[in-house]
Amino acid sequence: MSKVTLSELAAHIGAELQGDPQAEVESIASLDKAGDHQVAFLTNPKYKTHLKEAKATAVIVSPDVAEEVNSNALVMANPYLGYALAAQLLDTSPAHASSIHPSAVVDGVTLGSNVSIGAHAVIEPGSEIGDGAVIGANSYIGHNSKLGENTHIFSNVTLYHRTVIGADCRIHSGTVVGADGFGYANDKGNWVRIPQTGRVIIEDNVEIGALVTIDRGALDDTIIRAGVIIDDHCHVAHNVEIGDRTAIAGAATFAGSVKVGKQCVIGGASVVNGHIEIGDNVHYSGMSMVMRGEKEPGVYSSGVITLPNKEWRKNAARFPKLDEMYRRIKALESELNALKGDD
């Protein structure tokens, strides 16, 4: 990315510029390490002490600390959003190819305009690829799948048959979409496979990290609604529905037939039990064990914080006796109340 002036950057991120409009920046760095021709940002108050010593050409800040910046300031209500927009403008990621590699296998496929397909990618018959889509090297798209406009499939991604991906999505390497859900019947101790005949439908503007698995539905579809973001190493089982703009952090796992509302946040390493419904704007902190649905918006938590090992071992040993202790306390409370009644 070539250099941009601060006036151009301010216009791009929607900030008010305090300083030299002709000063130039070419990259982003952290506040304590940024130097000449770099822009930094401040969102966490605990790093405020770095402002006076910052050597960045410009710093993106909120209005309440703008006067403390000793260089150029880009002032806006949400500096973290400014950072995101600036990072997009100054992104140094290599541009993708704008052609179809000779080694790609594209058979009986409907291709839009300006489609890019990397080396050794395979797209099976009956599939439809939208305008401006990018399919990375070694990726596989199964029969009768659909890929929306400007969607970017990175290398080594697998989309099983009849998968539907919307427009402006990004799916990172190693992710598998549309594998069979975990469906089996038990016949006297033997597991009998149940073919999974649903699909996976991913709507527009969804971003999926690396090494994510999203299983196809057993009968109905697994659905990821518009604007959802999913971090690396997550698993979404069959017939799950994730609501609009929900964020799912790394290693979260969803059992089958879960329905998650809009704009929820699922913390990292959380486990969500099957066949439950979670309302809109529910936030689970990391390592939550979600055994029942929650309808009311709010923050919910579970899991055990780290403790010194000796203390943790004592607590762990006492946990199986928790119900007994509860009953004994209730009995003592009843006796105490009876004694008070005698008075």
From TrEMBL:
InterPro entries: Hexapep, LpxD, Trimer_LpxA-like_sf, UDP_GlcNAc_AcTrfase_non-rep. It is an enzyme of class 2 (transferase). It comes from the Bacteria. Residues 23-89 form the UDP-3-O-[3-hydroxymyristoyl] glucosamine N-acyltransferase non-repeat region domain. It catalyses: a UDP-3-O-[(3R)-3-hydroxyacyl]-alpha-D-glucosamine + a (3R)-hydroxyacyl-[ACP] = a UDP-2-N,3-O-bis[(3R)-3-hydroxyacyl]-alpha-D-glucosamine + holo-[ACP] + H(+). Keywords: Acyltransferase, Lipid A biosynthesis, Lipid biosynthesis, Lipid metabolism, Repeat, Transferase. It holds the Pfam family Hexapep. GO terms for molecular function: UDP-3-O-[(3R)-3-hydroxyacyl]-glucosamine N-acyltransferase activity. Pathway: Bacterial outer membrane biogenesis; LPS lipid A biosynthesis. The active site is at H238. Its EC number is 2.3.1.191. The keyword Signal does not apply. Catalyzes the N-acylation of UDP-3-O-acylglucosamine using 3-hydroxyacyl-ACP as the acyl donor. Is involved in the biosynthesis of lipid A, a phosphorylated glycolipid that anchors the lipopolysaccharide to the outer membrane of the cell. Homotrimer. Belongs to the transferase hexapeptide repeat family. LpxD subfamily. This is UDP-3-O-acylglucosamine N-acyltransferase. The gene is lpxD.
